[in-house]
Amino acid sequence: MKSVTSNVDFTHNEEVIHGFIRIYTQTNGYSLHFTYKGIPVGITYDDDETTYTIVGQKNCELIDLLGAERFKTYRKYEDELKSLEKYNIVVADQVYGFFHTEISGVHILRIKMTDGTSLDGDGSTIFYEETRRSKSKSLHYLRSRVLEHYKQTGATPEPEFLKADETELYQSMKKWLEENSK
């Protein structure tokens, strides 16, 4: 993956913190790396609206609030939540799987909702073939459709797609993060 790296500085509590930012040119993602109070911090984010200064300061504030060990737990849980959200469909704090098959390099992703609606991961007609050859793009479209359908109708995916263990893990980590970031 191609990237560009630059040295950066930001200020937290009147202390200048040195680090570097890596910009991934193909995915438009970012990662910020620095050390604060002896704790190495590496954060990946993809929000163009967020600057490295904001991301750095937020993490310094968390270290000040939580201390080293709880900060490490915080980052671990945050990363695990992102992973669950990346590879599954999360609706109303419930983690769902989906039907997936691959035929000749084409990914077919589907899910059935509690109101009987079937949704798929096919992209727009302009990029139809490109989307179907990428599982991650197909999942992106499927996730977007599921969440939009949920917002409009309140219907969630069918219970057969619910991942009970992942849901319990997701909810407990999310609760811990909420309780420990105040």
Describe this structure in words.
It is a single chain. With 182 residues, this protein is α+β, with helices and mostly antiparallel strands. The chain has two domains: 3-88 and 171-180, no CATH class; 89-162, no CATH class. Helix content is 42%, strand content 31%. The chain has helices at 52-87, 128-132, 135-153, 164-180, and strands spanning 3-12, 15-24, 29-36, 39-45, 89-91, 94-96, 99-103, 106-112, 118-120. The strands form three sheets. Strands 1-2-3-4 form a four-stranded antiparallel sheet. A hairpin with a 2-residue loop joins strand 7 and strand 8 (106-112). The longest helix is centred in the middle third of the chain and has 36 residues, at 52-87. The radius of gyration is 19 Å and the shape is globular. 20% of the residues are buried. The mean pLDDT is 89.
What is the fold's blueprint, element by element?
Layout: E1 3-12, E2 15-24, E3 29-36, E4 39-45, H1 52-87, E5 89-91, E6 94-96, E7 99-103, E8 106-112, E9 118-120, H2 128-132, H3 135-153, H4 164-180
Antiparallel strand pairs: 1-2, 2-3, 3-4, 5-6, 7-8, 8-9
Helix pairs in contact: 1-4
What's the short version?
By secondary structure, the protein is an alpha+beta fold.
